[in-house]
């Protein structure tokens, strides 16, 4: 029986010649049969006689002998011709006896230190004949007593984490595609061998097409399709934090909506006659506007980096049935910044309005076309409170365009927004019975019901030049929806903080601005008190949500969890353990139904198609 031997290997480099310490010996365990086979037939008698003279210590069965193998290794790959220079290896046992491992039969009678002398004699010739090539190396420090030792390990691309390459813009896969388009395929590096699991995950998401809407609904759950179903497997690791840019969602622009709307509010409190008694300083508007610009610049810069480095993730967000509505948020926030500018709005050039409304118009064509044409992205299937963002942009554009002196284009956008708002409002009220109920931590999105009629009332008042009946109808609808949500105290109990909380800020601020305009048209003590009260509530809400956001972002660091909604696979791939866990958590009736269907399917399959053994018996019969 072959026993395992303790083998100590030491690489003798040219460290002595260059004044550098030799690397530390590496001790490994190999079977004794490997040592015997490596030594050869001629070296076995030389080692057996001293061992026999010392007794049964090294030859008895079940005992182990430690060997020290000293190998001469060149300092560069060009010196791998040590066998031609007479380099050899010596195997030394614990008792001091040495076995010479000879590369040729001519060296069959070794001495105790013959291997070391031969390596030292070959070192000058090796230094003269060897050619050294500069190679990139990775230096690793090992803090081992008594002093720190340096090790150089060759750099290889195979050590790079490839699990996120499927979402990266400048990944090796993209380089290969561009090289194939140019007709110059990249050479294959044997070191770049990917593990099997990474290849499987890349095959799942390597297609040029993003998952369909039906695939999003099948793999995700929740009203915003943000949670992976228990029976689904994520294309990215779930047990560790992803890169920050990959976790930064498009919904982060909701923070810009909340802060920039405050600049509009305090500008209205400063300029409207109904709130002139407050004597609001212009400095408040200036401070809020610059803070909004800074926040907008920061969020935009981070998301632009995501577009540059993780374009596939951005593309998946854009094709997400619910997440696509948040692509209106950056342009709406820019409209708010222009509306809340400290100087008069009519002094701004009209080109600014057209530049900001062009992306909104393009998004309208895409989103409204999908609502109307039907299919897997029809409105009855993707209806969600976040769809209000696709409507609010038209009303805000109409409001700003009218203030800038435009006429026909603002009316066009107001008409388009009003038509689709009516359809959306009815669809959301008549939600299908199969739709999932909104959980508590997403109830803030219900406040988006207030945003659209509030902004529509202000836009219609600016288009008509007065706060007439049409503007009052829209305002009263928004005021009723506001009160119907506030009186439901249960909506605010036990709500976990997330970015969805910013859905409180923008609608409440819009309702406060509309109330201020209404108080200027209908000036009474009640309307003034209502304007001041709603403005105070909106400001306190924005301040509280902003403080909570900074606390979760910089203290707890849990503001941006892994965005699993973009990590679904192209094809369904579920783990059997997850399916079993899902069945265990299901009711008894569901389990009996599943198992009865399985037994019925198994009986049908067995009756229709016989087993291979049965087919073999039938074939053997005459």
UniProtKB/TrEMBL annotation:
Any Gene Ontology biological process: intracellular monoatomic ion homeostasis
CDD domains: TDT_SLAC1_like
Membrane protein topology class: Multi-pass membrane protein
Xref: Gene3D superfamilies: Voltage-dependent anion channel
Transmembrane residue ranges: 287-310, 322-339, 351-368, 412-430, 442-461, 473-492, 499-519, 525-548
Region span, Disordered: 1-24, 96-117, 136-165, 178-208, 601-622
A Pfam family the protein falls into: SLAC1
Coiled coil, from the record: none
Subcellular location: Cell membrane; Endomembrane system
GO cellular component terms, A-Z: endomembrane system; plasma membrane
InterPro entries associated with the record: SLAC/SLAH (IPR030183), SLAC1/Mae1/Ssu1/TehA (IPR004695), Voltage-dep_anion_channel_sf (IPR038665)
Record GO terms (molecular function): voltage-gated monoatomic anion channel activity
Annotated keywords: Cell membrane, Ion transport, Membrane, Transmembrane, Transmembrane helix, Transport
Family statement drawn from the similarity comment of this UniProt entry: Belongs to the SLAC1 S-type anion channel family.
Record-given protein name: S-type anion channel SLAH2
Organism, as annotated: Panicum virgatum (Blackwell switchgrass)
């Amino acid at each position: 029986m072959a026993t395992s031997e303790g083998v100590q290997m030491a690489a003798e480099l040219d460290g002595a010649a260059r004044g550098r310490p030799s690397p530390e010996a590496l001790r490994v365990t190999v079977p004794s049969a490997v040592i015997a086979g490596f030594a050869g037939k001629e070296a076995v008698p030389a080692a057996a006689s001293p061992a026999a003279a010392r007794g049964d210590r090294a030859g008895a069965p079940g005992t182990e002998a430690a060997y020290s193998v000293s190998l001469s290794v060149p300092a560069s790959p060009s010196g791998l011709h040590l066998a031609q220079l007479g380099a050899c290896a010596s195997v030394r046992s614990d008792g001091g006896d040495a076995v010479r491992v000879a590369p040729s039969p001519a060296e069959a009678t070794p001495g105790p230190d013959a291997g070391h002398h031969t390596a030292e004699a070959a070192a000058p010739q090796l230094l003269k004949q060897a050619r050294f090539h500069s190679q990139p190396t990775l230096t690793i420090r090992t803090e081992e007593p008594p002093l720190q030792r340096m090790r150089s390990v060759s750099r290889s691309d195979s050590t790079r984490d490839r699990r996120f390459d499927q979402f990266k813009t400048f990944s090796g896969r993209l380089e290969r595609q561009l090289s194939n388009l140019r007709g110059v395929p990249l050479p294959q590096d044997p070191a770049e061998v990917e593990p099997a699991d990474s290849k499987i995950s890349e095959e799942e998401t390597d297609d040029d097409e993003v998952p369909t809407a039906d695939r999003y609904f099948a793999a995700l759950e929740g009203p915003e399709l943000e949670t992976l179903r228990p029976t689904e497997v994520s294309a990215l690791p779930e047990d560790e934090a992803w890169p920050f840019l990959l976790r930064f969602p498009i919904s982060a622009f909701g923070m810009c909506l909340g802060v920039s709307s405050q600049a509009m509010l305090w500008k209205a409190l400063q300029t409207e006659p109904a709130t002139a008694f407050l004597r609001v300083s212009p400095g408040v508007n200036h401070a809020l506007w610059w803070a909004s610009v800074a926040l907008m610049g920061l969020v935009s810069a981070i998301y632009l980096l995501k577009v540059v480095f993780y374009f596939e993730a951005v593309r998946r967000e854009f094709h997400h049935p619910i997440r696509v509505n948040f692509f209106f948020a950056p342009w709406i926030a820019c409209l708010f910044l222009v509306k809340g500018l400290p100087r008069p709005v009519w002094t701004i050039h009209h080109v600014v309005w057209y530049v900001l409304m062009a992306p909104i118009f393009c998004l309208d064509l895409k989103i409204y076309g999908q609502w109307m044409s039907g299919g897997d992205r029809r409105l009855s299937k993707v209806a969600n409170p976040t769809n209000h963002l696709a409507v609010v942009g038209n009303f805000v554009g109409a409001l700003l365009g009218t203030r800038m002196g435009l006429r026909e284009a603002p009316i066009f956008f107001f008409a388009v927004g009003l038509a689709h708002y009516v359809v959306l409002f009815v669809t959301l009220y008549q939600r299908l019975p199969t739709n999932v109920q909104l959980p508590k931590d997403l109830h803030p999105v219900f406040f988006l019901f207030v945003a659209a009629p509030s902004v529509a009332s202000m836009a219609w008042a600016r288009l008509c030049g007065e706060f007439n009946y049409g503007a009052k109808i829209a305002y009263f609808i928004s005021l009723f929806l506001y009160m119907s949500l506030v009186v439901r105290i249960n909506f605010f109990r036990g709500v976990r903080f997330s970015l969805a909380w910013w859905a409180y800020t923008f609608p409440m601020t819009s309702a406060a601005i509309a109330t201020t305009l209404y108080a200027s048209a209908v000036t009474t003590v009640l309307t003034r008190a209502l304007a001041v009260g709603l403005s105070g509530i909106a400001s306190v809400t924005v301040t509280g949500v902003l403080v909570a956001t900074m606390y979760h972002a910089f203290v707890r660091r849990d503001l941006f969890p892994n965005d699993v909604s973009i990590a679904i696979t192209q094809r369904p791939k579920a783990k059997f353990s997850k399916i079993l866990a899902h069945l265990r958590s299901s009711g008894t009736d569901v389990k009996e139904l599943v198992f009865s269907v399985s037994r019925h399917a198994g009986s049908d399959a067995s009756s229709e198609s016989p087993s291979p053994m049965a087919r073999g018996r039938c074939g053997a019969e005459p």
